[in-house]
Amino acid sequence: MLEAIAGGLITGTFYALLASGFALIFGVTRIFNLAHGDLVVLGAYVGEHLWRVAGWSPILAMPVAALPAMGLAVASRPLLARVGEPFVLRSIVLTFGASLLIQSGLQTTFTADFRLIVPPGWDHGISLLGVRVAGGRLSIAATALVILALLHLLLTRTFFGKSLRAVSLDREGAALAGINPVWVDRVALALGGGLAGAAGPLFASIQYVTPSAGIGPTLIAIILTIFGGLGSMSGLLLGGLLLGLAEGLAAWAGGAPWREITSLGLLLLLLRWRETPPTGRAGRLMRQGPSTGVRSPSLATFRWAGTGGMIVAVLLPVLAAPRDYLLYLGTMALVFSLLAESWSLPAQAGLISFGHAAFFGIGAYASALLSLRGHLSPWLSLIAAALLAALFGVVAAEVAGNLTGAYFSLATLAMAEILRVVALHWTGVTEGAWGLVGIPGLPRLPAGGLAHLVGTRATDYYAALLLLAAMCGTQAWIRRAPLGLALQAIRQGEARAAASGVDARRVKRIALAVSGLFAGGAGALHAHIFQWVDPASAFSLTLSVLPLIMAMFGGSRYLLGPVLGAVVLYLGNELLFQRLAPGGHLWLYGGAVILVILALPHGILGWVEARLEGRRGPV
Amino acid sequence: MHQRRPCGTRACLILLLLTAGFAFHPGAADTATLSLGEINPLTGRFAAHGTALHRGIQLAVEEANASGTLRVTLATRDDEARPDRAVAAAEELITRLRVAALVGGYVDTLVGPVSEVAERQKVPYVATASLDERLTQRGYRYFFRISHLQAYVDSMVGILQDVFKPQSVAILFSATPGASQLARRQRERLEQARVRVPVFEMFTSGIADFTPLLTRVRDSGAEVLIADTFFADHLVMVRQLRALEVNLKAFLGAFGMEFPEVVRDLGPSGQFLFGTTGWEPGITEPGTEAASRAFVDGYRRRFGTQPPPLAMHGYVGARAILAAAERAASRGREVGPETVRLGLQGLDLTTPLQRLQFDSRGEAKHYRRLIVQIQGSTRVVVYPPQRATGKPVYPMPAWKER
User: Fold this and answer.
1) Closest CA to A268 of A235, A240, A226
2) At A231, is the pLDDT very low, low, confident or very high (cuts 50, 70, 90)?
3) pLDDT bucket at A4, cuts 50 / 70 / 90
4) What is the number of structural domains in chain B?
5) B164 lies in which domain range?
6) What is the CATH number of the domain that holds B168?
7) pLDDT tens by residue, A80-100
8) Between chains, do B177 and A325 touch, taking CB under 8 Å as contact?
9) Which residues of B fall within a CB distance of 8 Å from A583?
10) Pairwise pLDDT comparison (A123 vs B221), residue with the higher score
11) Sequence-ordered alpha helix ranges (H) in A274-322
């Protein structure tokens, strides 16, 4: 047991170092850097290169490995200055694009081969108070501790550190006191990027590295920063140690399944415990859902385009050729649209979900099991599964409804991860990692002699279209109904909403249940399209991030913004990027995301509306 | 204004075309064209594996085009290790580009959905790295694969039962369909043979800290550790075994132990580890030594590096389709999905990896895994006895004695 505790503490200390750069940048500049892990991996590659070519130890390589990441972070400052509001959400989209570009750059430069730094002697064990630990891992923990201590001193004892904290606490106040926030931003980016890069060689010493390995460090950084607090190195360290210890002890005592469930369950519990956090800044910082306004310009301005789009959408199965391919693309575009549109409903109340994969996965598994084991028809399974996901929405509202901003986001992320682990280990029901195969597809349309005209995927397509139409109709109705106003009121402040007679708990419950219903429907549909479901793809983190990206891309303040974002991004990737650059499509995808978020402050629909209104002239 | 072409001219044209048809039809194989679609993860978490498979396929196609017996066009698509992308690629290749066959695929969560599309569209699909037993139990007629689970079970349990004869074995396996099915089958076979399996744990591939799991292995008193996971996990796990001084009689890794990085990165810690291999440079099906050397040389010339074993899987997968297409062409039949499927069904091809014949379910009949042990800078085949090139060092020396 002692080894498990020691291992957990060592891992936890390193987790805190991994998160420190993210926390610093998020705290000072409000940039939610999804490319954080990629900066770590960039540093890891530099460290591995120096070790392989010149025999540098990972600790010696840290200052050099910090430089490229530092350079990238500082160079991004002018771009970030162009990011409009809601800043945090838009910074997520921007850094998502940057993450794809860095990954592509790494694969082009270093290939996709696995890299690991193995310094001589680091594998040897050392006995410490009767506990055996690896010498290398102990060196890593010691180095991380020293860096965290230095950071703590820097932040608390120097004028420079106090300036950082001042800007982090109150930007306008700090400016009034004579601190230049732009300068502080630049320094925070340099320091945060440098810390990420410097952690890289250590990362590559305990774990193998590939160009796409950044997702793990990013996830750890998000969890620890939101939980541990901003700008507080001791909070990060405490969070890291708790997480590492919980993982280690649970795996030792209960086996591997309990490793993630315990740590994530603990996180949920602690989040509820600190639902009114003493500092609470992380909560405030992300409580900025997309503003929808009372009017819905999309309906008035885009009536003709919308009607045309609907006609094309309904006739696509007859118009498309080659049918099955284009219908499959159309169906998937609609499934992603459904997910993005359902995500945007609670987002109007400032409830930014990082765990929409939970609804999607529940829908997929429930429908698969009901049709496979319960022998229900796929249609009935789909409806029942969507209702079950809606019920989970109510549960989610009970568990996380009291949390605000980033705390809510983190809780949803934890719930989706817990469900993934449950699906993975509940082998008696879900068949675990094997996944469920042979799920019945939706029956073909009774097209009779005209079957060849609509192809084999028409049912999938129309089912997705019907669900999306229902989702959009519900959204449109909610936006006009008192419920829509209540959502807006909650976004602006729960206390104020309560004063106006809004029952925030009830409204959140409804929003999450409706959102769950349609996201679950998307998951169920996905299961019947693929006839296969497994934990990794049903509860994939990508499914939790993409709705946000797609909604911001299309224009999150518009009813049809998420739909347009999903359709353009998905079809753009499939029909354009993949064909233009089969080996380098991620460059185009990442570039397009960055370009749109920088050039179009309200997404594609915002740009279209501005053009139309510009042509019409001022009213 | 429309002018009628004189009748004589039309007759001359028809005659000319007929003559040309006879003149250029000495054997259909000369001009037969195969349109081949490939789907592999070229970016994302399986990019290294997908790239190795892709290069093997590319080499096979380039060789076929150079030999002149078949004109092959290869359309490659990246599935980004995402099932929805893999299905989109399959639909595009089949319905837009009209390929006659599909090849490629790494891990069953990507292979499975592609196989559904292939079956529905009636296009043969040869999967290059797939183990899930359920995929060949569906009665699908268009699904073929060149590897199967039973070969892993037979070789790994075989060496335990015939050579090591331990009392208890620990099994750690990663959360993928193939690895978890392999672990389940191993446990069943071991327990039938009255071998205890006190630790049977699944983990998420890529974790940094195996300490809790390894201390459970040590505390259970297991003599042998089976690690049904990918090579990168082996590297991390073995280093922590050494640090914690968990002394086992044998460490037996399922996948990727034949990667050169295992010897290079683990150094002395890698000595005496056991793993499985189907083929690697220097270890080849008897009678195919020259073909194996030619593949290694060709690969080095083309890509400037030693071929990893997965490249051979890609190469053999593509060669199977090429051979089926050549067979159809040599019989004067059009090279299309149905003729390629028939060719694959009747295939009997000798390759450095295996003699390739498919059974009625699409499984490769003769796929075998060998057990190798790292001894010095080389890997010695130690099981099965008829292919052994050396004796196993068992038990492995304790970490302190190295």
Assistant:
1) A226
2) low
3) confident
4) 2
5) 150-282+370-401
6) 3.40.50.2300
7) 778 777 788 888 888 988 999
8) no
9) 42, 78
10) B221
11) 281-285, 297-301, 303-319
